[in-house]
Input
Amino acid sequence: MLRPVIVLMLVSFTCGENPAVQVTLTNKGLQYGKHVGAGWIQERLDHVTFPDISGTILRIIHYTLSGVTITKCDFPEPSVEFYQDITGFKTSISGLSVAVTGSWITKTGGIHDRGSFNLAIFNMDVTSVVKLGKEADGHLSVTSAHCEAQVGNVDIRFQGGASWMFQPFVKYFKGRIEGEIKASICSFVEESIVNVEYHLQAMNVSFDVGENFAFDLPLTGMPVINASSLNLGLKGEFYNMKSHTDPPFKAQPFTMPKQPGYMLSVGLSEFTLNSASYVLYSADLLQAIITDSMIPPYLHMHLNTSWMGPYIPQLPKMFPGLLMNLQVYAREVPMFSFQPGVVKLSFRGAVKAFAIQPNGTQTPLFKLNVDSQLSGKVWIAGGRLKGSVTLDNFTLTLVSSEVGTFQTDTLEHVMKAGMMLVIAKLNVELGTGVVLPRMRHAQLVNTVLGMEKGFIAISSDAELLKTDRGFN
Ligand SMILES: *[C@@H]1O[C@H](CO)[C@@H](O)[C@H](O)[C@H]1NC(C)=O
Ligand SMILES: *[C@@H]1O[C@H](CO)[C@@H](O)[C@H](O)[C@H]1NC(C)=O
Ligand SMILES: *[C@@H]1O[C@H](CO)[C@@H](O)[C@H](O)[C@H]1NC(C)=O
Ligand SMILES: *[C@@H]1O[C@H](CO)[C@@H](O)[C@H](O)[C@H]1NC(C)=O
Ligand SMILES: *[C@@H]1O[C@H](CO)[C@@H](O)[C@H](O)[C@H]1NC(C)=O
Output
């Protein structure tokens, strides 16, 4: 009976952690990416220079073709698809035609000759298969798994020098040139993939947040690919760079909803917010001193012993006319819980009240536990992220008192009314919202946000912004 349990435990240990952030690229996104990538390659093709080609013909004529550059290129739209077999992508282009120009030099014995040439390559087919993977440190990796190029026909014409003499031999080295062209295409493709890989490795999988904290985003597992999407699972945990202790709770697995109508989707588990909450709590940052001057005037409250009179009658008698301070702090890690359509936050805190003596000494008065629960809604409208908050529950309980016991009901009532006023003001701000983040080269369009059990899913289309310098 025990063995299956142990095996299960081992399996759950070796399976590693659940991702708290998931990114899904749909076929729509892949096709858009391809379209943009094709434009980028087309621009780059104008600047491709082929390596010099040299050899010997008829044993005595040494030739070199140099300065080979593209003059015209018919670049049909390539096709790209998710390639499940190797966890990657398969890209093909067929019917690519290119015209190049360059110069030729021949050396026969001591005689040099030179001129120019035009070369047209017709109906090239290129297929490239790229494999995605995960490095040990959580980086995404790309490698070329396969590259194949076919050349339909080559037409080559020489001008200048004694070209009339060797043009008839073109047939002879056409095959050689075709071979060189095929190899250059695949080495260009492979170099580009290495270049992408280099950029991926240079990317950070951990981002500093302030001086002490970091947001960790390495891959938690291999990329998952099927015929319709690519899914990446990322850690998505905040941590303290000094202590680096993991929170006492784990990310729960979640399944991204299917959103094939959008280019990409990002899922964010409640774990990410809770890890931030844990980090702030552990670093003693979830506390504040509230003074009278911080109370907004619209609340009509005063943090002094006479204002407290109606709620704690003995207080103004014991400490007449003194200002007060409240030390507010979290007793437990405030936890977010994502539910369909709503996010709940439970806050278990405490308030220590002090009277400020004329000589500055703070005299402790009493301590209350404050337990509250907030509900929030988040949505996207008009390109802005908006929200609203409601106070579901607010209770005060007296823990200890230096001024004798007192009833907390009316104080609770007044405090709750105050909180609701503050939240009403906050909701005005949240209703205005913030503009969705926009990157230097891309912006999100048609963005929707859905709150599910345990996670938020944001699905969006992206629009790359073409800058003067092109995409880079
Ligand atoms: C990556 O992280 C290191 C250290 O945290 C930082 O110095 C560097 O600027 C980061 N690089 C980028 C591209 O964000
Ligand atoms: C591909 O995987 C996603 C989840 O990652 C799933 O929702 C979808 O149904 C799968 N599609 C196919 C064609 O298997
Ligand atoms: C204390 O609060 C009362 C209102 O209850 C206000 O009239 C008074 O000015 C305040 N006293 C001090 C010292 O702030
Ligand atoms: C400040 O005043 C309070 C009350 O009058 C007194 O109990 C306390 O000893 C004083 N503290 C100092 C440092 O003078
Ligand atoms: C409000 O808090 C009290 C005390 O913590 C609890 O008994 C009650 O169930 C809570 N109500 C709601 C609606 O959460």
In short: Residues 35 and 265 are 19 Å apart (CA to CA). Residues 1-15, 468-472 have pLDDT under 50 and may be disordered. Residues 357, 359, 361 surround 2-acetamido-2-deoxy-beta-D-glucopyranose (ligand 4) (CB under 6 Å). The domain at 27-204 is CATH 3.15.10.10 (Bactericidal permeability-increasing protein; domain 1).
